[in-house]
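Q: How would the structure tokens look for this protein?
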Amino acid sequence: MLQNFLHAFLAKRLKSHLLAYAPDVVVCTHATPAGVMQYFRDHDHILFPSVSVITDFTVHQMWLHKDTGQYFVANEELIEN
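A: Here is the predicted structure in token form.
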């Protein structure tokens, strides 16, 4: 799947920066970095906590990842989706 390739590609470029910075939490405001964070957890066992701020008006599968700590949405209607 193209999405998996993209996450792996970006993870390789981000890994050294993420490890050097060692954030307390990673805030994702786009679905792609949220997927990259899940890739780190699944493949590299990098366990920085991450949260997602869903900036879209609908929630789609690219936003949802099993280990995302918390989701923030603009309105309650998105919670139901």
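The chain has a mean pLDDT of 90.

Strands lie at 26-28, 50-53, 70-72.

Upvote if useful.
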